[in-house]
Amino acid sequence: MESMKQELESSTTLSEDPAGQIAHSRSERRAKPRTWEIPPAPAPAPHLDDYKSIVGEPVVEELRFLARGLAKKTLKMVNSTAVGGGVAEMLNRLVPLLAELDVTTHWDVITGGNDFFEVTKAFHNALHGAPYELTREAQEIFLTYNEQNRQRMQFNEDIVVIHDPQPAAMIGARKDTSAQWVWRCHIDLSNPHPQVWGFLRPFIEQYNAAIFSSQTFARQLPIPQYLFYPCIDPLSEKNKKLDDSFVQKVCDEFGIDRSRPIVTQVSRFDRLKDPVGVVQAFKLARKYADCQLVLAGGGASDDPEGAIVLKEVKEAVGNDPDVIILDLPPWCALEINALQSASTIVVQKSLREGFGLTVTEALWKGKPTIGGAVGGIPNQIIHKLTGMLVHSIEGCAYQIRYLLTHPEFATQLGRNGREHVKENFLMTTNVRRWLLLLQILLRGGKA
Amino acid sequence: MMAASATPTTLQRTPAKPFYFNTSAHLLRITKYKANSLSELLDALRECPEDSVFQHTFRTLQEHHFIREGFSNDFAHWALAQCNEPGLAEALASVDVREFTSVSTLRERIIQILENYLKSVPNMGTHPADETFYFCASDIVVLPTSFEGRTMGEFTEGLRRVSVHSIHHHFIEARLRLKLMSNDFSQWLHEDVGLTEAARKLNRIDIYTSTLEDVRQQIIRIVERALT
């Protein structure tokens, strides 16, 4: 921890006041918060045994028993990027852990020109429901690059997993092999663009199975569909247990008073995360309960819309000294961890959401969490048992007040929330799901 | 059900056969069945695979093993949270999976509760729920563990150290395998150790007001008291 602090001190540079408001004495201290300008070197990937202290030895032992039946079996993962994004982040942790369990896993990344990735980006947005005109040219670009990648790659493994729509047409490589092919869909297909889904669907139906991140994201398909919740790594910088002195240091640098309740939302400055709604809920709640609001996010510097949303948030805040707005670069995992750890309540008042891993992170830290009842958040927050679900600004304000004035109930929610994550949304659970799926598929689909 | 015991008379009992701790791992499958109202829930319950009924009753207890109160099965939770039907939720929550040795009879019981409720308030059947109920199902793989009870000391040590998944496998899921109103621990304590009263006491542990961790501790206490 000491070395981490030294690294932080030596690697940080001064940046501008993110909130852009220095109108009162307490905010003077947060006038120049320090954030990293360049990404730090990634921490080494943990080993399986490192998880024993978190999930218990029997759980790790179960993984080893499950893997025994898979000795000498091979697996290939194919996706569209090696770095950046949740899929690459997950594979960077999953592949070494599977290798440690003697499940040989090859990870290949498809290549393509700008034209290919423009088409697949448009497909991605259209599958989330955005308007799009699917042209013959776009279809040809998609199929041509899939064919090029198919010819470039070898497929000698027992199981091939294709991630997301970009490489979906590579299923053609399965013919003349006995391999089982699985399509792992990380995106929400609940309301896809009919033309784009109609184009992709014939490829998907050729797979042996599909995997979705939530039951609400799936489509009716003639193949078995499995549910793999996204997961967090409890040993990552974002989620590991921090020394309290580091948490205090981060709060001091950002001008956050730990002697008063802290309500936090961590998310990009994006209208779908409703940061302005969070400010309004906070202002309603504060009439009855003393607290501060921390809005920690990013996206304002490299996304024109993010900058507009940040401006709207600042306007909603006005000169309120109890609202701390932090526009952090994406590699500030330790600082985000510290902010979540320091929080009394965490809010994720999204209007639309994927799975909502910031909720998972907050629950894992044992924080009473308030979430919008959208996307994958209800999978994580069981209302009144592992957190509180809300549907409006007023509802959010009420739950903030309630949790601040009922600390024992809030503590119990936080305790349940952490156990819920431990049981269902940790990397070790993800490894178990993969091992189970491999066993089931290699037995011909019979458990 | 518990026939004559094979029974040691001393307190230092040696089991006739070792107890082998196993565990089960589950993979969730998304089925084609879903419901947007209580009538649709009833229709889907009549048609869905037994694996789905198992998932939303037996298995969901394991997934939420850390909750001490307020969670019994997914149907009850949905009736309350998404349909705002507390009376129906209470009736569904009162279904104790330990009273069933087959999923088919458990399914019949849940269907009966829903049918009775919808007869009493027929206009609620088509009232749209806030959120859809998606029927999932469990694919199960049974695994060994490294723990076995050749002595009572090893058995209690195994109880302490196995995962809660193993406790669920032996204590709750077992009745579907045994087709008995009992569990693996009680069967073994009765048949192979002769601790018949302890075996009976285990069956009186309330799994709906305890976490699985609490259940584990209660099992250990009952066994240790029987040995002293």
Can you put this structure into words, describing what you see?
The complex is a heterodimer of chains A (447) and B (228). Chain A is 43% helix and 14% strand. Chain A has helices at 2-11, 25-28, 52-55, 57-68, 86-100, 114-127, 136-152, 194-204, 244-254, 275-286, 304-317, 333-342, 357-364, 377-380, 393-405, 407-424, 427-442; strands at residues 12-14, 34-36, 74-79, 104-109, 159-163, 180-184, 209-212, 225-227, 262-266, 292-297, 323-327, 345-348, 369-372, 388-390. Chain A has 17 helices and 14 strands. In chain A, the strands form 3 sheets. Chain A has a 6-stranded parallel beta sheet with strand order 4-3-5-6-7-8, covered by helices on one side. In chain A, strands 11-10-9-12-13-14 form a 6-stranded parallel beta sheet, sandwiched between helices. In chain A, strands 1-2 form a two-stranded antiparallel ribbon. Chain A has 447 residues and is an alpha/beta fold. In chain A, helix 5 packs across helix 17. Chain A starts with a helix and ends in a 5-residue tail after the last helix. With 228 residues, chain B is α+β, with helices and mostly antiparallel strands. Chain B has 2 domains: 13-20 and 149-226, no CATH class; 31-136, no CATH class. Helix content of chain B is 51%, strand content 15%. Chain B is built from 10 helices and 2 strands; from the N terminus they run E-H-H-H-H-H-E-H-H-H-H-H. Chain B has a two-stranded antiparallel sheet. In chain B, helix 2 packs across helix 5 (103-120) and helix 9 (196-202) packs antiparallel against helix 10. The longest helix of chain B has 18 residues, at 103-120. Chain B is elongated and about 65 Å long. The interface between A and B is large, with 38 and 33 residues. Strand 8 of chain A pairs antiparallel with strand 1 of chain B, so a sheet runs across the interface.
